[in-house]
Amino acid sequence: MTTNRTFTMIKPDAVAENHIGGILHMIEQGGFRVVELQKVALTAARAGEFYAVHRERPFYNDLVAYMSSGPIVAAVLEKDNAVADFRALIGATNPANAEEGTIRKKYAKSIEANAVHGSDSDENAGIEAEFFFGK
Ligand code: GDP
Question: 33 CA distance to ligand 1 centroid (A)?
Fold first, then answer.
């Protein structure tokens, strides 16, 4: 089941600038079905837990502050080859390197405030979906 699912967040900058609809439109146009959807504000502690894998990176504290600076939209998406296809749809981490037609090319402001998250593996997609939607 997880091979056909990925997890995304619309990040605080994109939510603050009223791009939820535009980004969900690109996601649906890209062939993804929205399975779960939730708008929520992350505390710094919870943002830190989500990005714990980056704990040693120099930008970790900035990333946690940014991700807890305003509400995000979390979603589980379904499509064949969901993880890889979604990474292609969002584009490179740094929007300066993102290809035309990608979500980050259109909506990202910087390497940090880059509009969307997309899981990097089936395993992490499952862990991240559980983090928000686990019962
Ligand atoms: P992703 O898988 O494309 O989201 O990229 P990473 O897993 O490498 O990084 C996670 C998130 O940390 C990115 O989406 C950015 O929001 C942020 N980030 C990555 N690299 C940098 C950086 O060099 N500086 C800052 N400030 N933030 C970064």
Answer: 25
